[in-house]
Amino acid sequence: MSEIRADFLAAARVAADLLHNDAVAAAWTEPSALPKFSVGGLAGHLAFQILAIPRILAQPVPSEPVIPLLEHYQRVAWVNAGIDDQINVSIRAGGEQEAAEGPAELAAQVDSMLDRLSDGLAAEPNRPVRIAFWGPWSLTLDDMLLARTMELVVHSDDLAVSVGSAPPEFPSGPFEGVIDLLSRLAVVRHGQAAVVRALSRRERAPDTIVAF
C-alpha cells in the first residue's frame, strides 16, 4: 500500500474514534465551531471524507484532464466562496444528510467503511478520479486521498473544539503530509517570505498565513 493510502487510513481511524465520542452525540443538534454548521452536520462532513471513497471509485474513469493538487485548490470554488454562497450551502447540506440517521449510525457506517477500505484500497490503481462539484477536472486517486486526509485532520480539530474535547493526536505520517500540503498552499496564497517569517521571526511575522 502506498504511503499516502496508509496515511489516509490512519487519519480516518482517528476521525472514526472521535465520532464515537459521547460529547459529539450529546451536542449533536447544537451549533459547531464552524458558522452555520451544527455539530451533527460537521460530523457528517467529517464522515463524508471516508464514506465518499467507494462512491468516487464506483464512477467510470473520468475524461476530464488530471491536474496537480495545488492547482486544484486554486480552481475549486469553496476556497474563496462566502459562507452563504451556493457551494458552501451545498457542503453544509451534504453534511447534514450524511448525519441524518444520528451519531450512533454514522459512527457505525464509518467503522464498516474503514474495514472495507483497509482490505481494498491498496489494490486500486492510481487512476483519475473526481467529485462532480469540483469543476471540469480530475485528480489522481492518491492526490484525492491526500486532500481527504487534510480534511480529516482539519475537521477533526473543528469537531473536537465544537464539543469541548481535546484535539485528537494523529500519527506522524498523515500529520506531516497535511502540514506539508497546508504549508505549500500558504506559500501560494501569501508568498515565501510571509511563511518563512511566520515560522521563524516573531518581529516580522505577518498577521496570518492561513492556507484558505
In summary, what is this structure?
The chain has helices at residues 3-19, 22-26, 39-57, 69-75, 86-98, 103-120, 141-162, 172-190, 192-200, and strands at 128-129, 139-140. Helix content is 61%, strand content 2%.
How do the strands and helices of this protein lay out in sequence?
Layout: H1 3-19, H2 22-26, H3 39-57, H4 69-75, H5 86-98, H6 103-120, E1 128-129, E2 139-140, H7 141-162, H8 172-190, H9 192-200
Antiparallel strand pairs: 1-2
Helix pairs in contact: 1-3, 1-6, 1-7, 1-8, 3-5, 3-6, 3-7, 7-8, 8-9
Task: Describe the protein.
- The chain has 212 residues and is mainly alpha-helical.
- It has a single domain (3-167), classed as Four Helix Bundle (Hemerythrin (Met), subunit A).
- The chain is built from nine helices and two strands; from the N terminus they run H-H-H-H-H-H-E-E-H-H-H.
- The chain has helices at 3-19, 22-26, 39-57, 69-75, 86-98, 103-120, 141-162, 172-190, 192-200; strands spanning 128-129, 139-140.
- The chain has a two-stranded antiparallel sheet.
- Helix 1 (3-19) packs antiparallel against helix 3 and helix 8 (172-190) packs across helix 9.
- It is globular.
- The two termini are 30 Å apart.
